[in-house]
């Protein structure tokens, strides 16, 4: 392998000049290609979003509402607390959506549990969030579950971690514990999941924005463009700013 | 090309793979290209951070160090320096052990495989084999030089 070995004592051995030239050429090619590839990957535009037009139908499950239920654009999210893409959307995109679209009364945002079977702790996380919703703390618990996802998703029994997050969210712990241990809201979660199946959801996160169904995490700009399209087709009506991210049980939805 | 040249080339390749995963982890790249396995599952798991930094960033640091040592080792003055061979062997040996641990975590804890991590583990293993072989060569050369030197003194 050491083609340059030969000609006398060890300290006199030098790689052939041509060999050294080839070596530095290979290094330079890899360096240029590598830097170019990284720059391209960092700057390439996001993939075009594939949307599916769906018929607006009334939801049979309630989900968890943020914002004004009468906002001109209704958004439904079907998500799994253990899904990395859902966590990415929740932590990177959702804060902007709440601040710029939900709190301004443009969008009503409704979260539906869609726990996937391959995720061992998804259903438990949905139960943890539903029990926090009993005390009006669904959204703080939702945010904590997604932010802390790497720390509980592989736990054999994540109850302790969930209890910690419930406490951080300001939930009364003893009420939360009895709710969680009794799996009190299992039926509600199954109803939310069935709502997704009824609408043809197959992966998480999936969004229904107006009449468009989109699978995959969205950046804010992509989300806003879809909201603008829905807004253009929405019937004109006054928008009232939302008071808070309440955990409404209002079932009426387009 | 010499073994050390191959070590430098492979460590540069490994460096770019580690940088790619690091850029994903810090949010500079939105989505990982992953034709085989579940790269995002692995790179968003809790094992993807070590001492608060992305594991891939530690890997990039190790590859960069190996590259610098290998480049120093291809210069004529240090071509047979055993210290260079020892440094490459120890650094890449550490990389093999750590990659072995990460592969175990992927298979038995996360239950997902990241093709980039597997590629990196393969690269560091080849680098280790080349470095160990280079170390054996450097030691042989050192013994031969000593023998030539001793016989020259006797003459």
Task: State the low-pLDDT regions of chain B, or none.
Answer: none
Strand tally of chain A is 6
Approximate shape of chain A:
globular
Helix content of chain A: 40-55%
Biggest sheet descriptor of chain A = 6 strands, mixed
Total beta strand runs of chain B: 2
Structural class designation of chain B? mainly alpha
State the gist of this model.
The complex is a heterodimer of chains A (254) and B (155). With 254 residues, chain A is α+β, with helices and mostly antiparallel strands. Chain A has helices at residues 17-43, 84-102, 122-133, 138-147, 149-152, 159-168, 173-181, 186-198, 220-233; strands at 51-53, 64-66, 73-79, 107-113, 206-209, 212-215.
Note down, in words, how this protein is organized.
The complex is a heterodimer of chains A (254) and B (155). Chain A is α+β, with helices and mostly antiparallel strands. Chain A is built from nine helices and six strands, in the order H-E-E-E-H-E-H-H-H-H-H-H-E-E-H. Chain A has helices at residues 17-43, 84-102, 122-133, 138-147, 149-152, 159-168, 173-181, 186-198, 220-233; strands at residues 51-53, 64-66, 73-79, 107-113, 206-209, 212-215. A six-stranded mixed β-sheet of chain A has the order 1-6-5-3-4-2, sandwiched between helices. In chain A, helix 2 (84-102) links the parallel strand 3 (73-79) and strand 4. The radius of gyration of chain A is 26 Å and the shape is globular. The termini of chain A are far apart. Residues 1-13, 238-244 and 246-254 of chain A have low confidence and may be disordered. With 155 residues, chain B is an all-alpha fold. Chain B has five helices and two strands, in the order H-H-E-E-H-H-H. In chain B, a hairpin with a 2-residue loop joins strand 1 (49-50) and strand 2 (53-54). The longest helix of chain B is centred in the C-terminal third of the chain and has 40 residues, at 115-154. Chain B is elongated, with a radius of gyration of 19 Å. In chain B, 41% of the residues are buried. The model of chain B has no long low-confidence stretch (mean pLDDT 87). Classes of the chains: A alpha+beta (254), B mainly alpha (155).
